[in-house]
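User: I want to check something. If I give you two sequences, will you return the structure for each one separately, not as a complex?

Assistant: Yes, each is folded on its own. Here is the first sequence with its structure:
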Amino acid sequence: MSTTGSHPAHHPGDALDRLRAMQAADLPVHGGRTLAYVYDSGLADVDRIGREAVAAYAGSNGLDPTAFPSLLQMENDLVGFAADLLDGPATVVGTVTSGGTESCLLAVQGARDSRPDVDRPRMVVPSTVHAAFLKAAHYFGVEAVVVPVGADYRADPAAMLAAVDADPERTVLVVVSAPSYAHGVVDPVREIAPAAAARGIRCHVDACIGGWVLPYAARLGRDVPPWTFAVEGVTSISADLHKYGYAPKGTSLLLHRTPEHRRPQYFAYADWPGYTMLNSTLQSTKSGGPLAGAWAVVRSLGDTGYELLSREVFEAVDAIVAGATDIAGLSVLTPPDSTLVALVTDGSCDPFTVCDEMGARGWYVQPQLSYAGQPATIHLSVSAATLAGVDDLLTALSDSVAAAVAAGPVTVDPEVAAFIGVLDPNTLTDADFDGLLAAAGLAGGGDLALPERMAEVNAMLDLASPRMREALLVAFLDRLQRPSRG
């Protein structure tokens, strides 16, 4: 049979059928039961509008705004909405990026390039800063000075400024969070940003999580520490649209206080025989779909819609915090300022088993490994859609803790634990990694696969140093990402 011309080799529906079959193994993105990675408004019409807008603009290219002026209009509309939300002065400008990591990368790159006189730039960040900033430091050759946080898990202003003053001439950026991902608390921006400004140093607020929800929390009368452009010295803010803007993946905003603050972010190059390259982000060609999807969702919900969704998500957060406090063996690590909740177990059970038990009951919660004396935790990113199932969630959480207590804490073979403790990831061979992956339960019989229950794997990783965790997981991912042939 000929397959030339316009006739496909397979029925057009085959690929879509195959997609649906593969997707059945994924975590659900709707229903409010996946408390990591996705953010669900619970509004089917809003989701539909976002999907249709993405599809309508999937072929458009954001490389040249003069070729697709509708994309430029949508971007300016979104920046304007966010500028009002974040107390931006009349001078605020901004850019739509592919996600929070790109916004963070650009904040660091822009700060670095604003100081061409500095040979070895550095930035000061709290230990709770998102790893995207350490990625930016790695990519852009900026030294990251990581400062321990206080007992309240917030950035320590005195320690942060002492780190700045240790080398103010090379310091190009100070970063704070609103809120930090791991613990859901807002750093003391009001104490840090003005002090950075007095030293002539930029201050970026990472509000990728909180940017679209904390302003409404304040309107609802919740106690939210100041963190927006209303705070003197805040020079840029990142805020994700695909988190609590409830837009399709992947869109974020990077806002700057003035055009002068943004200018180093641009890249232009004309010294070659092709078109003059002009980019406002790390990407050149970029689909207009995510931008259109975000614009359509924000326009559909509007200020009133977001306030209502924020009311729902905070009602869910309050219920989870109160309910978790009543479960023996479980407590809230620190009262959250935002929509992220970190739970900690006592010695009667371990959090990794609780996470497995929650998964068995249809709830996905995220384990966070221990760090610098801080305990391992159970992390929940609460969405508006979670509110409808809060009672079920709390029942599942109570039952999961009881099951974990009955099972007892996960233990790692003492010989394996001792072996992990002395390993140097810099000297391990591929064969060593293969053996460790097998010991971790991440490989067996020549195949790579995640076990149905991850408690033992996480307990083993929890014993490893951060560098060893990184090396093991990189080795695992490297072996997962191999081509399908034939």
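And separately, the second sequence with its own structure:
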Amino acid sequence: MAKPVFYDEMFSAPDVLRPHYEAYGQWLHMLPKERLARKKAEADLTFHRLGITFAVYGEEAGTERLIPFDLLPRIIPSHEWKMLQKGLEQRVKALNLFLHDIYHGQEILRAGLIPAEQILRNAQYRPEMQGVDVPNQIYAHIAGVDMVRAGAGEFYVLEDNLRVPSGVSYMLENRKMMMRLFPELFAKHAVAPVQHYPDMLLDNLRMCAPQGVDNPTVVVLTPGSFNSAYFEHAFLAQQMGVELVEGRDLFVRDDSVYMRTTQGPKRVDVIYRRLDDDFLDPLAFRQDSMLGVAGLLSVYRAGRVTLANAIGTGVADDKSIYPYVPDMIRFYLDESPILNNVPTHMCRKPDELAYVLDNLADLVVKETHGAGGYGMLVGPAATKVEIEEFRAHLKANPSKYIAQPTLALSTCPIFVDAGIAPRHIDLRPFVLSGKDIRMVPGGLTRVALREGSLVVNSSQGGGTKDTWILEE
């Protein structure tokens, strides 16, 4: 089999820098390796002091570890970002229209573009939301869309994260760290800013307050300090200047949600919730939940509080629904998709299942409800035993899985002990939806730190790097 060719973000050919990397590449060439090593140590120490950690599940040597940060930025030229931005705006707009539709008229189901059972029997579909009107018809106020570059350099959408997308705090802290370590670089490069994201987020949350509320009280609802992304919850609350609360800090009275404060109860209008639907309200969902607020759903359905993201958004980021997003764009917007999906085999279809079973060694197979890199098979990196075990899972419950070709993800140089070496990357831009759609330039670039690995998830040992969008 021919060795795959990977698109190199920095070099167009050996020792030939791409135009948008020329100034940085020349600077990097002149930089002593010892200085990079010192800067790396300084960054690690600072991140450790800040408590920027993430849980890596399954490791016996402790549940928390430092997020590996790479010193070499990923650089994207302005014209590429403009194309990505238009495509992301189009995609998230269609996804919000889809969510409104399936909880109201269900026109897309009646048109036969998506099998009704794929929606109505989906574990993430919430019948409790049927007919509920949400402010501005926005369900996914914050979306994290995972992008990869493959082949000759074309971008693809790998998945849509619409429930509680995380990682934006690492994007912000990475930029802050780069500006601290290498201020001279930002004097030489016109790098688009990202530091205003918390202000944009707060403005977006305030705009989606219940009707008639002029000065809304916004809070961030966290499951608590044991959660893998707790640093981000606390960070965003602090940056926005709003309260970080747990379920026990809130209560429902007189069809409203209140927060306990030292001055007495204070009404809450907008909740940026960072816990899943199942745990939001023990009276409506999981009765054993100690994380939510009893009665929250009834207040939400009455339009007396806004939840971001809305209850029931998970059905739109389920991997079994992902293949239909291009159809949604055509159906709701009457436009051709700007960004392409990765070709996807739906294992619930017998002919596609047969193809997947015959080609497991060459495919990536994912659970439709999976996240964080768990419950998946990367065929080319799997052993024969792992492939056969996964084959049994597929046969037993094919509708639980989708499969995709193993993409030749683009590479970007990172700093390792031996020097500078290429590693595979992806990109997660963060899209804010309100009265309009906005985003800061770039997003979070995640890195597969192990040589040859295609898994970039932080929970699977991946790292991150700063993402530069060069302004014209």
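Because they were folded independently, the notes below concern the second chain alone. Residues 78-102 form the longest helix (25 residues). The CA atoms of residues 191 and 470 lie 5 Å apart.
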